[in-house]
Amino acid sequence: MIGRLRGLVAEVGEEEALIDVGGVGYVVRCGSRTLGRLPALGDETVLHIESQWAEGQGMRLYGFASREERSAFVLLQTIQGVGPKAALGVLDVLTPGELAAAAARGDKASVARANGVGPKLALRIVTELKDKPLGGPGVFGAHAPALDQAIAVAAAAPASPAGSAVAALMGLGTAEMIARRLVDQALARLGEEAAEGALIKAALQELGR
Known about the structure:
Blueprint: E1 4-12, E2 16-21, E3 24-29, H1 32-36, E4 44-54, E5 58-64, H2 67-76, H3 84-93, H4 96-105, H5 108-111, H6 119-130, H7 144-156, H8 161-171, H9 176-190, H10 196-207
Parallel strand pairs: 3-5
Antiparallel strand pairs: 1-2, 1-4, 2-3, 4-5
């Protein structure tokens, strides 16, 4: 089974990319988030791969920018009604950290923003993920402890955009103290009524300086 590919970006389509590894082209299906983060054609990239066998279609490769995204993709498909397309759709609108926080809050509306995910399936996703052992290997990967912290923060402040933003940053590997400081700075700039997405974006901009 292929677990990772390092190669040159040969082509990029709407749902897949062609990665040239030593002269062999691998067709890798990706979500729009991953496709948008690929480097320019001809440049080298590394994708974490989930290999799956599709009846009548052979082996399919699904590519992700991080191990956490790949693990979340696998975990999502353990839920009844969630196939590869829906799982990719969820990860297009929510990072693994944001998904963990949404599950902790029971926030089905955030999950329902994904293509191919209706309200009933979104409810099932947040309900079942809330009970998953996020600290185990192969679930959300190396940052599982941070995601567990993200859940605790989100559960403590389910209606707070600031609390959700802190949880999302922690899910991305930011220490809690730093995440809170960044969100506080974002609140000071944007105002107390700022939405969760705007706070996360502003905090990430500050983190990247």
